[in-house]
Automatic annotation (TrEMBL):
PROSITE patterns: FAD_PCMH. Belongs to the oxygen-dependent FAD-linked oxidoreductase family. Residues 1-22 form the signal peptide. InterPro entries: BBE (IPR012951), FAD-bd_PCMH (IPR016166), FAD-bd_PCMH-like_sf (IPR036318), FAD-bd_PCMH_sub1 (IPR016167), FAD-bd_PCMH_sub2 (IPR016169), Oxid_FAD_bind_N (IPR006094). The keyword Secreted does not apply. Keywords: FAD, Flavoprotein, Glycoprotein, Signal. One of its GO terms (molecular function) is FAD binding. It comes from the Eukaryota. PANTHER family: OS08G0158400 PROTEIN. Residues 79-256 form the FAD-binding PCMH-type domain. This is FAD-binding PCMH-type domain-containing protein.
Length: 533
């Protein structure tokens, strides 16, 4: 099912808060950079890109366009270093031109597909005076599904919701293993790994990627064969923005049954939530791979949210024998098709499949800033620690925890098969989040809570390195240091080993092959290894 002109070569509820705007002023240093690069960059672009697709800070549409995909308003303030230009390409040649012109004129590009980067690095910089343009890929969002072959080509500017919608319309017996939030952009999600409620059955989104189209720093249009095996390996979990502009992805679709079952069972502290979460740690990673049960712990309640690839009748005996502590019963079951489950799990009852096509988030979300980070757990956390955790979550200005179980297929893939190394031996991933009203302050109290809670959790999570999920990006883990106009490999190890473990070195080697001059660069991009210290 084609939703727009495709780049694919013919051959070759809490969760709404994740998916989150305001206004900013360019620094004087950036203004100076603009004046020195304006003529060269814009003149170069004019030969290849229609002027209506290029916006400068003086363009009336610049600020609304910049806001349109900003999901965390704390990165849209007077002090935010924003782009000098926004380019909205409608085909691959526009992207190629933007990269070539950017290199010629000293303007770097940052790539935005959905704008959900937790640190906003797809549309802002931490470095005052940096001259950069945003390549906004929202016009490049075609999805082409071949149901008979069980494959699809999807452009990086498409959202997960648009991908799911196209797959569901093509067949109710096909699905795709990726995230819950439908407004997340495919480009960033895929290139960082991408997991959702099918991960125990089918692994990560990147485990189903079979081809990709990339524009490199020389402006070349490359596919899996022409970019080479090391670069193709790197963009599937190592952050595509470090290696070029990934325009589109070919993926294998996965079989799903005609009926799936979802449930959401809340358990309060007074109902024994501490005991049930403690038991969940051992049960959830060892359940049949058709069953995924995550936990959202907030204040004094643990909500057990599940997707089962089958009927309620098939689920009941599994829950009764494997997880009786949850006291699950038939009244908790809701049966539907897989595509119906996607909006239901994220948006709740009353949602429709058509809601997946909404690329924006509720206006109320834009009033809240947030801070997030992550951990991996390889040994079950003792009950007394969970009792302490619940106490901390009951404090004023406390955040929440989201626990996603691993095991089964995600753990069957070797650590080195993709840059994503958190595989065998992982019980579950933790995401910590805290939110605050932008009208009520700068979030300092809530941010401190996340940092303090992260420090408290250190003895109970993975170590050497303390692992983190790249798609839950956190600059507290470290930032690049630029030496001689190239990001330092050694400095990058501080955060790189947390995200990628031993795969960090191979990522840096791939970077040296495709972008040795470090043109594609941000605060946590992969540094090139060659001639680096």
């Amino acid at each position: 099912m084609a939703m727009a002109k495709s780049l694919a070569p013919p051959v070759v509820l809490i969760f709404a808060l994740f998916c989150s705007y305001a206004a900013s002023i360019a620094s004087s240093a950036q203004a100076a950079a603009a004046s020195s690069s304006d003529d060269g960059f814009l003149q170069c672009l004019s030969a290849s890109i229609p002027s209506q697709l290029v916006f400068t800070q003086s363009s009336p549409s610049f600020t609304p366009l910049l806001k349109s995909s900003i999901r965390n308003p704390k990165f849209f303030t007077a002090s935010t270093v924003r782009p000098l230009y926004i380019v909205t390409p409608t085909n691959a040649s526009h992207v190629q031109a933007a990269v070539v012109c950017g290199r010629r004129s000293g303007v770097r590009v940052r790539v935005r597909s959905g704008g959900h980067d937790y640190e906003g690095l797809s549309y802002r910089s931490e470095r005052p005076g940096e001259a950069f343009a945003v390549l906004d890929l929202s016009n490049l969002r075609a999805v082409r599904v071949d149901a008979r072959a069980a494959t699809a080509w999807v452009d990086s500017g498409a959202t997960l919701g648009e991908l799911y919608y196209a797959v569901g319309k093509a067949s109710n017996l096909l699905g795709f293993p990726a995230g819950l939030c439908p407004t997340v952009g495919v480009g960033g999600h895929f290139s960082g790994g991408g997991f959702g409620m099918l991960l125990r059955k089918y692994g990560l989104a990147i485990d189903s990627v079979v081809d990709a189209v990339l524009v490199d720093a020389k402006g070349r249009l490359l596919n899996r064969n022409t970019m080479g095996s090391d670069v193709f390996w790197a963009i599937r979990g190592g952050g595509g923005e470090s290696f070029g502009v990934v325009l589109s992805w070919q993926v294998k679709l996965v079989p799903v049954p005609a009926t799936v079952t979802v449930f959401n069972v809340p358990v309060s502290a007074s109902q024994g939530a501490v005991d049930v979460v403690t038991k969940w740690q051992q049960v959830a990673p060892a359940l049949p791979d058709d069953l995924f049960i995550r936990v959202v712990v907030q204040q004094q309640t643990a909500s057990f949210q599940s997707l089962f690839l089958g009927t309620c009748d098939a689920l009941l005996p599994v829950m009764s024998s494997r997880f009786p502590e949850l006291r699950f019963n038939r009244t908790s079951c809701k049966e539907m098709t897989w595509i119906q489950s996607v909006p239901y799990i994220y948006l709740g009852s009353g949602s429709t499949v058509e809601d997946l096509l909404n690329r924006t988030t509720a206006a109320s979300v834009f009033s809240s800033g947030y801070k997030a980070t992550s951990d991996y757990v390889r040994q079950a956390i003792p009950r007394d620690v969970w009792a302490n955790i619940f106490s901390k979550l009951a404090q004023p200005n406390a955040g929440l925890m989201i626990l996603d179980p691993y095991g089964a297929q995600i753990g069957a893939v070797p650590e080195s098969a993709t840059p994503f190394p958190h595989r065998a031996g992982v019980l579950y991933n933790i995401q910590y989040m805290n939110f605050w009203p932008m009208a009520g302050g700068d979030g300092a109290v809530q941010t401190k809570w996340v940092r303090d809670f992260y420090a408290f959790m250190a003895p109970y999570v993975s170590s050497n390195p303390r692992e983190a999920y790249f798609n839950y990006r956190d600059l507290d883990l470290g930032e690049n240091v630029v030496v001689g106009n190239v990001s330092s490999y050694q400095a990058g190890m501080v955060w790189g080993h947390k995200y990628f473990k031993d795969n960090y070195q191979r990522l840096a080697m791939a970077k040296s092959q495709i972008d040795p001059d470090d043109y594609f660069r941000n605060e946590q991009s992969i540094p090139p290894l060659a001639n680096n210290k």
